[in-house]
Amino acid sequence: MWIVRWIFWLLALLFLILFAIQNVTETVTIEFFKWRSIPISLWVVMYLSFLAGVLLWFVGSIFKIVQLKTEVRKTKKENDNLKKELNELRNIPIEEETDSIDELVNEE
Fold this sequence. Notes:
78% helix; two-stranded antiparallel ribbon
């Protein structure tokens, strides 16, 4: 499986290098409100845009991971409480239960 992963990353890297080589001469100017950049290579702008997207996804993922870990911690605590309750119910002597059953039978 690791070979497939390495081949994938190698192909992705070759694709990125090929893209950069073919677009070296293309330049763009970025405008944001009244700000205007100097002419920048197209491949640099695309890589920076991709990097910004990855960072934005990463920040969003951190919040989701924290939320899920909190939920797991809460569920584990609830599970531990239920196990404790189950063990307490298992340790009730049988005699007490038979006495209560006898009382119910006698009442009827």
